[in-house]
Amino acid sequence: MTKIESNKEPANVTIYLRAQRWQRELIDQAASLLGQKRSDFILDVVCREAESVVLNSNTFMVNADTWANFNALLDVPPRPLSELRKLLLIKAPWDEQ
Fold it and tell me: Hey, is 69 helix, strand or coil?
């Protein structure tokens, strides 16, 4: 799934929303700070959160062979990297005394 892109087409669907007065005032204050209209602010924030929920809830289904191959790759020991070994042997500046 790719990132949902905004477009410049005019809105053609209405969403009705009930809120408490303090919620509307808070939303209006935040929208004003960003120089946005209330509806634009609400849609931006809600769509961002909705996209995050959708992207974080994806489940990948694979067959047994693919799963076994994936696990086999995870079980392969990493190849030795001399550069990494050298880096890990260097003391951090805050450890040197």
Answer: helix
